[in-house]
Amino acid sequence: MENIIVKNVKxxxxxxxxxxxxxxxxxAQESKEIPFHIKRxxxxxxxxxxxxxxxxxxxxxxxxxxxxxxxxxxxxxxxGKFKQSIIxxxxxxxxxxxxxxxxxxxxFSDNCIILxxxxxxxxxxxxxxxxSQFLKETI
Length: 139
Ligand code: T46
Hints:
The protein is mainly beta. Helix content is 6%, strand content 41%. It contains one helix and twelve strands. The chain has one helix spanning 131-138; strands at residues 9-13, 17-18, 24-25, 40-44, 54-59, 64-70, 73-78, 83-88, 93-97, 102-106, 113-118, 127-128. Strands 1-9-6-11-4 form a five-stranded antiparallel beta sheet, with no helix packed on it. A five-stranded antiparallel beta sheet has the order 8-7-10-5-12. Strands 2-3 form a two-stranded antiparallel ribbon. It is globular. Residues 40, 42, 44, 54-55, 64, 66, 103, 116, 122 line the site of dTDP-4-keto-6-deoxyglucose.
């Protein structure tokens, strides 16, 4: 697994329960593999635009874990000091994004589906969508 140097980011590996030719089951539970209480989930799909770029923000309060449950995409994570680009392409590998992590998601495969579990309900006010504001609050 890739060594993560960006603060408040880590990869999360889920176990795989294999049923031979009948498929694989991966499971994540709050306070175990997911390091917070889960208050919300959402998913991103239908990523047909090859040039789609999502994210471009950080969170002041919400923590999240992203799973690429189908296909692949690239996520750039940035703590204001270090930046790192990670490809998520395995349905049993998640990426934890804590607070104050700027993320940019791009290079989505056609069939990409991203499942996100979050520690709180949606609140636009806890987003930082301006990079210079992010740097101001982070450093
Ligand atoms: C993140 C990445 C990984 C809602 O109304 N409720 C919600 O729970 C969410 C997540 C979004 N929205 C609305 C807000 C926007 O009008 O949906 C629209 C698209 O949201 P956004 O541009 O923030 O989407 P992404 O893909 O850039 O970011 C999302 C999450 O917002 C964010 O928390 O870290 O996925």
